[in-house]
Amino acid sequence: MDFALFFNFFSQGAALGLTAAATPGSLQTLLISETLLGGFKRGARITLAPLITDAPIIVAVLLVLQRVPSIVVQILSLAGGVFVLYLAWNLWTQWRKGTSITTEVAASQPIGWKGLWRASIVNWLNPNPYLFWTLVGGPTLIAALNQSVGYGVAFLVGMYSVFIGGMLVIAAVFHQGRRFGPRIVRGLLLISIGILVIFGILLIQRGLS
């Protein structure tokens, strides 16, 4: 196994994980709601939702993508690159306006482990995971698996370790106090914008190659 390739796929996964953690969305909304209501431990349960919901999504997407001509995967890579750049532009617009993730805290207040159940349902009904694994994660994961199962594992470990770790950081920040949240989240958003642009360009190059 080539360590450079292993680290390359791990880094791509880690970059996407950071972006996913820093991008405001329904999962982050529930995470913050739970943390503000019951502290870090209660909020940390929400971070388990992607581990529950993403596995069947990944398998379904891979089963479809593995059975289509390679040109389709290349087209998906191109579409994924454009989609990622679109996300970067939306995040940049939000960042310039000063939009904070704290403005999206939901009125609902799930209790205990019910928060994880609600987070799982939200994730299953959210089109973003399906779009991500079809347009971005799927083609990248297939490219890794085509070379070695180890590279695919590296991509997944890099992504979910950073994704869940980033979510835990957000929970810890809001556990300490809401007044510290906006500054941290805006910084993460700015970093994620740069990562999205770079990754979008890489996906477009992969689709054209």
Question: How do you describe this structure in short?
Answer:
With 209 residues, this protein is mostly helical. Helix content is 81%, strand content 0%.
Walk me through what this model shows.
This protein has one domain. It is built from nine helices and no strands. The longest helix has 28 residues. About 6% of the residues have low confidence.
Q: SSE layout and pairings?
A:
Layout: H1 3-22, H2 26-38, H3 40-44, H4 49-65, H5 70-97, H6 114-125, H7 127-145, H8 149-176, H9 181-208
List the defining traits of the structure above:
mainly alpha, 9 helices, 209 residues
Number of domains: 1
Distance N to C terminus? 23 Å
Q: How much strand?
A: under 5%
Element-by-element helix/strand order: HHHHHHHHH
Give the low-pLDDT segments.
Answer: 99-111
